[in-house]
Amino acid sequence: MTSPVVNLRNGLFLIAVALLTSCAASKKSSSHAYMKKQYKELKKALDDADVTIINDSLKVIFPNNVLFATNSDQLKEEVKPTFGRFADVLNKYDKTKILVTGYTDNTGTDQINNDLSEKRAVSGKKLLNEKGVADDRMFTWGLGSRHPLATNDTEEGRAVNRRVEFVILYDVKPENQ
Question: What is the pLDDT of residue 37?
């Protein structure tokens, strides 16, 4: 026969586990709802971009021909209003972090492609920063010609592979912050 203290301890343990489980499910549900709402606003605001949602993260892909001239890391002037709308949505949903990744096709050396892709990612981050997105929310990564979306055997495929992607993640913070 178990003592009342052991029964009480086991009961409290089960209640604590149930509460933690429901809190975790609630946080997951609220973060998913938050990201889904942001996804809908980004889809509406960004005509030139491919916006997708995968679980609790968003991906925004701007094709290279929209953002940059060939072999350039300087953003085109005509994209600045689009980035203004993009920044407005990002600023509204400030519980996120943004990974800015740049890509190239496979023409040129790996060193040239890696440098160019990093410079393109930095240019995207810089423009969002100028539009008010906090610098500490964004990170850059130049991936060169890695992870092509299309074949590099045709000009059309290479054009698809020259891109900048923005991965938007819900910023999970510890409870005490």
Answer: 96
Q: What is the pLDDT of residue 21?
A: 42
User: Would you say 110 and 117 are in contact if contact means Cβ atoms under 8 Å apart?
Assistant: no
Buried b (16+ CB within 10 A) or exposed e, 50-80: ebebeebbbbbbbbbebbbeeeebebeeebe
The secondary structure of residue 105, as a DSSP letter, is -
Q: Which residues of the chain have pLDDT under 70?
A: 1-28, 64-65, 172-177
Residue 28's pLDDT is 57
Residue 98 near residue 166 (C-beta atoms within 8 A): yes
Strand order through the sheet with 163-170? 50-54, 57-63, 163-170, 96-102, 138-142
Strand-pair partners of 170? 96
Residue 68 has a pLDDT of 76
Cα–Cα dist 138/151, whole Å: 30
Going 50 to 36 to 141 to 80, the CA torsion angle's sign is positive
Record the pTM.
0.78
| The two structure tokens encoding residue 148 | 């092509």
Structure tokens at 31: 């973060």
Rg over CA atoms, the chain: 22
Structure tokens at 144: 């060169």
